[in-house]
Amino acid sequence: MDRFDHRELLCRLVDAMHQQGSWVGETHIQKCSMFLQKLLQVPTDYQFILYKHGPYSFDLRTELAEMRVRYLLDLKPNRVYAPSYILGHRGRLHIEISNEFQNEIDFVSRELSRKNVVELERVATVYYVSEANPGLSKPKVAELVCQLKSHIKPPQAISAADEVERIVDAASEITGR
Amino acid sequence: MPASPYQEIRDPIHVFVRLDDDELKVLDSPPVQRLRRIHQLAMSYLVYPGATHRRFEHSLGVMELAGRVFDVVTHEANLLDAVRSEIGSELLNPDKKMYWRKALRVAALCHDLGHLPFSHAAEEELMPDGRTHEHVSAELILGDEMQTIWESMRPQLNAEDIAKLAVGEAKMAQIRPDLDFGTWESLLSEIISSDTLGVDRMDYLLRDSHHVGVEYGRFDHHRLIDTMRILPTSQRATEPTLGTTDGGIHAAESLLLARYSMFMQVYFHRTRVAYDCLLKDFLGGWLPKGKFPSDLEALQSMTDDAVLQAISEQSSEDGKAHEVAAHRIMNRGHFRLLYKETPVDLSELASSARQDPAKEVFVEAEARYGADNVRHEANTPSQSDYHFPVLESDRDVVSSKTVSESLNHIPVARFGFVFVAPELYELAREWLNKSRSATP
Q1: Of A106, A154, B1, B379, which shows the fewest CB atoms inside 10 Å?
Q2: How far is residue A147's CA from residue A143's CA, in Å, rounded to a whole number?
Q3: Do A26 and B385 touch (CB under 8 A)?
């Protein structure tokens, strides 16, 4: 995938998330993109690190800024929360170019995009940690998450681990794993 | 009469910067003194003759502002109940509060220690193994040389605390993911490096505009600092972050507009970018294996003085590529701007959303005039969405983007340039004009 393909994919992701009634803040785009890349094997190349609120890609953040420069995305203010991303006037051209990975995009939008940022942080962190430590049991993953992010309490980490297990199972229909 | 407990240093931006004995030890350490030999704005002095200031005075300025912000946001009268439960334990104990104030000021003084010669100009391409100047800053702060100083201070400072505050959470997550940030450390690091209200940004905008001789980098930083508060991220999220009262929103707007203006008119000035290209060409050929060393001691010996001397010694009109680049730097033979991407090009002229106007001009020009004679440079610096909490007079906390129309309209700073060797400039212009007029 080249940069244009990445941008097309992000435009279609933003569009699909809005169709699900998501608020589509940057956190939603970040976490959904992480699941697209790591769980659903969509060949984007963003470097995710474990940041303040879970997995985060600074490359993706720069990509979003670049997409605003190119009128592919725009921002809409919200009174209480951070702004929402919406399609820019050239972004609408992008969503009609291809439907590659549409099942994957629809899946993450359906499963994740309506969660609030706190829920997203927890499930994304649990998934990131379990993916980085293959073979670790669910309770051990939850324990490690609590060590790495001390503001996440054990019951919250365990609940997020259950949710991640459900999402991974549901994704197997797409990934075939 | 007892001696003053402070050393005062005159500063063109903040009038006086005051340091205590412990801070003076840090200031006098070789890594901080080295910053006297690193230009703040790389070769911008070849465009703006006044832009000869160094990282050293910027670091002092960041320290001064960090202390001022700390005093405002931790003042008892400025703390909301909503955040007191999250951070109160660090402030109720005066010794703890004094520790963190000193750690923050020292971290601010050390935040740029790892800068390479000519600052950002060649970092991405020429640092080995994907390292950045923040990696080097963290290594220096955590290293033996500085450790001796931290241990001699009263209260004794923890090197990891200083490194975390100096480098910030985002970079530290990439450098030392094992160093977890608590809420308080995260907040203090924001004071230095937040990309909306951080004092690093405040100082470089004020200082750079002063030395460059432009007005648009200025903003009312006194008002902004006075209105800064620790606020919950939103009405429904208690996690504290830096924000302002509604009385500071216009000063914050001015800061963020100043940033945009400075990027577009100073940091992204076409001639400055052209000299950055030549500097990268020179360093790529001059440095062993085309990269800066990873050894800390060797890296610390590299300053702008050393590079300028090498440029002077190796300048040759018909030598190797890096010697020719040196010759161009020495003789004002920088590449000339052939094409500059405009908002209209990006928004309307390209017939498909997949088009990249600057890249297309570059590919054609390179095929026509040769790879040695054409350069494509583009940059979109990482940028937040300018959302931060604002405390309204009715004690509601709202998003900055709903109380400021201006913040919703500040464009993303960006450039896309195509350069051509000066001797080919007229020819290339003629070609580009013809090919553009032939396009319907």
Answers
A1: B1
A2: 6
A3: yes
